[in-house]
Amino acid sequence: MRGYLLARLRHMVPVVLGVVTVVFLLIHLIPGDPVEIMLGESALAAQKEELRRELHLDRPVVIQYGEFLLGLAKGDLGTSFRSREPVLREILRRVPATFLLSAASILVALLVAVPLGVLSALKQHSLLDHLSGFLAMLGLSMPNFWLGPLLILIFSLELGLFPVSGYGTAGHLVLPAVTMGTGMAAILMRMLRSSLLEEIRQDYVRAACARGLSRRAAVVRHALANSLIPVLTVMGLQFGALLSGSIITETIFSWPGIGRLTIQAIEARDYPLVQGCILFIAICTVIVNLLTDLLYSRLDPRIRYE
Amino acid sequence: MSNVGHRPLFLCLPFALAAAFLSCCTPRLPVDEGTLVIALPGAPSSIDPRLATDAYGTQILQMTHASLIRMDAAGNPVPDLAEHWEERSPTEIVFRLREGIRFHDGRVLSSADVRYTFAWILDPANRSPHRATYEMIQSIATPDPRTVIFRLTEPFAPFLAGMVRGIVPAGSPPAGYSPSIGAGPYRVDDFQQDAAISLSRFPGYYGSAPGIDRVIVKFLPDDNVRFLELKKGSVNFVLNGVDPHLLPAVLENEHLVMEEAPGSNASYLGFNLRDPVLSDVRVRRAIAFAIDREAILRTLWEGHADPADSILAPGFWAHADGIPPVRHDPSEAGRLLDSAGYRDPDGDGPRPRFRLTYKTSQNELRRQIAAVIQEQLRQVGIALEIRSFEWGTFFSDIRKGNFQLYSLTWVGIQDPDIYYYAFHSGQVPPQGANRGGYRNPELDRLVEKGRREPSRRKRKEIYRKVQVLLARDLPVFPLWINRNILVRDRRFSGFVITPDEDYTSVKAMSLSPKKGR
Predict the structure, then answer these.
(1) Residues of chain B contacting residue A40, judged by C-beta atoms under 8 Å apart
(2) Residues B93, B114: contact at Cβ < 8 Å?
C-alpha cells in the first residue's frame, strides 16, 4: 500500500507539470498584454517598457518558463500582477469558499442521489423509478445559468427563504450548493441505480437471503457497499471538477471562489495568478482521484494496492 | 423491500427542517435598517486611489477618500480638501487646505500627505498606472501644513482634472486588496474581495455628516442577479446596472423608483484609417449615413441614450453646439460609395460592394448592436463580418491596429484634452489611444494649443474647431451618449446623478421615515 501510494504521488508530478506547462504556453500565446491592462492606455511607452522589463516579460518565453519552474521548485508561485500580493496568498484566501461550496454541493447530491437511487433500484419499473428517472433527466438538462436564477426566483424572491447572492452565512450557501449539486445528483442517482440493480441480482445477495437475512438487510449490508465503487469513481471526478470552481455558479451567486479568481486572472492576463490557479486545480484533481482510488479498498476488501 | 418503499417522506424532512430554520433566520430588508445597499456590476481590482483604474474602484473611492478638488456636473472644479486654490502662473498652482481634516484613523491630514500621495504615484518604482497623468509635475512644495504648491514643467490646462485623486496618509504602503485609509465621508468596516464592501459613516468627516449611517456595496456581475436583488429589496440602489429591457419589470416593485439624467459615456464606431478602403473619408461617411442610430436606440436601448454629434456630451462645457448631425440616409450612403469607386456589382442582388470586419466584445448588447449594424450596412451593399472576442483579446487587437471597424465607449471624460490622447498623431499606440491612426497636422496643432491654454473661454473655442474638424474627417463616428439611469428605493433620496456617474453625493442622501412596507 505504501509503495502504491508513493508511486501514485510520483506519477502526480509529471501530470501536474504537464498541465502547468500547457497553460503557461497557452496564456502566453493568446493575445493581450498584461502591461497594457495594468497601466492602461494612457501610460507612457517608456513606463510600459520599464514595467515589462521589471516583470521579465521582455525575456523569451522559454526563459520565463524556466524562471517559473525555478520559483515553483522553491515553493514560490510569484506575485500577482494585478493585486501585487503573493499568488499563494490570493489562492489560499479563496480556498475556504471553494471547499465549502464543493462540499455542500456533494452533500446535496448525495442527499438526493442515494435515497432515490436505492429506491429506484429496489422498485424497478415502479412509478417512483420512472419519476426519479425523469428527475435525473431534468437535473442533467438544466444548465446552471438557468437553474441558478430559477432557484433565486422561487426560494429567494417568492418564498423569501434564502438571500439572492453573497457569501458568509449558511443561508448564502444553500442555493449555489443546490445549483451545483443538482447535475451531480442526477448522474450519481442513475449510476447508483444501475450499479445496485446489477449487485442485487448477484448470487451472494441471494445466498444472504437464503441464510435468513431479510432482502432489505442483504441489500443495505452487502449489495449497497459493492455498488458504491462506480459511484465513488464518478463522485471523485465530479468533486475534482467542483474544486476547480464553477465559474457560472460563482458569478450568479457572487461567490468568491477559485473559478472567478481564475477567470479574472485570465481577463487581466495576470500570468502568475493564472498559473497558480491552474496548479491548484490540477493538484486538487489529482489528489481527489488518488483518495478515491484509496477509498475503493475500504469499500471492497478484495481490492489491494501493492 | 416493501417497508423501504413506504418511507419516501423522510427524504423531505431535512429540507423542510432546513427551510424552516432558515426562514426564521431571514433578516429584515436593508432599507428597514436604514442601510443603503448599492450593486456594482463588477469588483474593484484595487481600493487605493494611487492604483485603482477601474470604474468600480473609483466609485468606491468617491465615498471613502477626499481629494483636493471635485468636479461638478458641468465639469467645473469645486473645493473638497482644498478650500481654495490659485494659479499664480500657468506653471504654479497653490492649494490651501481646510483646517482640522482627519483621516479615518484619526491622523490629521496635512500638506505632507498630499505631497506623499502624488510623489508616490510619480515614483517609477511604485508602478502606478496614474504616473503619466502627473508627468508634468516638476516639484511639490509644502511651505506649511495647509499649503501645497505644485510647479509644472510647462503650462498644462487639464492639470486640475487630475487633482480629483484621493489623498492617503504619508507613509502608507499599498496593501494589495486591503483598502487604503482615506478622509472621505465613509470609512471601510469590512471588505470581502469579490463579494462586498461595508462602509459606515465617518464621524470625523470635515463636511456635513452623511445622512445614511451604513452603506454596503455588493459586487454583482450577473445582470439577472442585480435585477433579482433589486426586486427583492436586498439591493436598493443601482446606477446604470439594470438592463434597459428589464427596467419596466424592476419598476413593478412599488418601492422602487427610476431617475434618468444626462450621461457622458460616449459610444463610437472606430475606423482603421490605415485600411485601403476606410482611408477614404467618403466610405467612412457612407457608413455613418447607412447606420440608423435612432432605430438602434429605440429598440436596443429602449430610448435611454441620445444620438451623439461628438464624443463630448452636450452638457459638457467644451461641447461644440451646431455641428450638423449625421442623419440616416441610405441613398446618400450609396451615392458616396459610388463616388468612391465602390459600385454595387448587382444592384439589389446579394453581391456586396466590399467586405469589412467588425470587432466587438462578448457583451450581449454589443453583439446585438453589431448584428443590427451588419444588417443596416448590408442594405447599402457593405458585407460586414462580426467577430466578437473576450475583452483582453479584443482590446489587444484594437491596440495593435488589427481591425477594420470596432466599437467602444469613452467613459469618464473629465477634460477635452481627451482629443489629444485620442487623435493626436503622436498618440498612435503604444503611446496613446489614437487607435485608428488618424493624422492631421491641423488637429495636432489645435490639441497641443488646447492643453496649454489656461483660459477656459479660449479652450472652448479651440475644442469647437477640433470637433468641427473631426466631424468632417470622421476618424471615428460618435454613435450615442448613454443616459444615466438610477433605480433606487424611494425612501432613499438626495443623490445627485452627475454625467460621469460620480458617487460623491451618496453622503448627501437621507432616509425618509417609514410609511409601512
Answers:
(1) 53, 129
(2) no
